[in-house]
Amino acid sequence: MATGHNDPQRRARILAAALDLIAEEGVAGVSHRKIAARARVPLGSMTYHFTGIDDLLLQAFTGYADHAATLFEDRLTCATTADGAREAVTDLVHTLSETPRRDLVLTQELHTLAARRAPYRALCVHWMRRSRTLLEHHFPPPTARRLDALVRGLTLHRALDDTPSDRELTREAIARITAGP
């Protein structure tokens, strides 16, 4: 791995290290110094690649949100019918709720920042619009909005519950939300 000035992976390593630290210590626990040490880059690299810690965090979370939205896209673009979309959403809820705790923590840290700060709120709004647009290929916009909220809520509940709901309960909730009037 290159570590000099011509290290093309340095910026990516910094962003990955920031996300790893956020997952371990929360946003409040990160600093330029900790991120640089984790990424094994000189401290000066932080200011070379980012205008400050807020810029670094926003870019790290933007990459994370893009990754999460891509997972959603991968599941839904394979669906060709409403029933296929329902099953894809069911798979998505179960996949997301069974991922490593890292993803759960990163999502919650991002949502907490979004509740407090406009740039992160804009990032979350963009992420939600992206999800809803995919859902709207199969369901009317109001249904897509409710289904997107259900996915986020069910994912969180399944991830945190000592006895998470089974696939049939998820499938039934999705069917009820997406059933016509």
Automatic annotation (TrEMBL):
It comes from the Bacteria. SUPFAM superfamilies: Homeodomain-like, Tetracyclin repressor-like, C-terminal domain. Keywords: DNA-binding, Transcription, Transcription regulation. InterPro entries: Homeodomain-like_sf, HTH_TetR, Tet_transcr_reg_TetR-rel_C_sf, TetR_C_31. Residues 31-50 bind DNA. Residues 8-68 form the HTH tetR-type domain. This is TetR family transcriptional regulator. It comes from Streptomyces pimonensis. The lineage of its organism: Bacteria, Bacillati, Actinomycetota, Actinomycetes, Kitasatosporales.
